[in-house]
Design a protein that fits this description.
Radius of gyration: 15 Å
Strand order of the largest sheet: 2-3-1-6-5-4
Distance between the termini: 16 Å
Number of strands: 6
Order of helices and strands: EHHEEHHHEEHEH
Largest sheet: 6 strands, antiparallel
Helix content: 25-40%
């Protein structure tokens, strides 16, 4: 990574539905993070009600420890499969808005220690890059192995 740490913060968000074990959902989320971050991360918990009256718990947090944030990209880059990397590369414009990169990860796969993209009931990551152009973000993603 560069001398100036380019990531300002990472927002994490995941829904735990009434049929899911909240602790397992949090384990899945923690599995996506580098070890150094899993030990210190705290989640805000909000109780919501679904369309049909079912209970839903929303877990959110914002990671701001700038020295550790690049390790998130590196972990994703090391563990994301080639097909997902190519899919992200081909559709980066759908995941990048200004200086924010939006990624959605499969909860089931994450619980099993795998990193895989999904659109269905995902774990949401919003990675905010400080003062970086889309081209610079593209280069950082390639350097960290998130893109091929």
């Amino acid at each position: 990574m560069s001398q100036k740490l380019p990531i300002g913060y990472v927002d994490l968000r995941v829904f735990a539905h009434a049929t899911e074990d909240s602790e397992k959902v949090l384990t899945a989320l923690r599995n996506l993070l580098p070890i150094e971050l899993t030990e210190t991360v705290n989640f805000e918990k909000n109780s919501l009600t679904g369309h049909h009256g079912n209970s839903i718990t929303l877990f959110t947090t914002q990671l701001t420890e700038k020295k550790l944030l690049p390790a998130i990209l590196e972990k994703i880059g090391q563990n994301l499969n080639v097909l997902d990397k190519e899919e992200l590369n081909n559709n980066l414009n759908l995941h990048l808005e200004r200086t924010n990169l939006y990624l959605r990860f499969d909860k089931q796969a994450a619980f099993l220690g795998k990193i895989k993209f999904t659109q269905d009931d995902p774990i949401h990551f919003k990675i905010h890059f400080k003062n970086k152009s889309p081209q610079e973000i593209l280069e950082l993603l390639k350097k960290s192995g998130v893109l091929p």
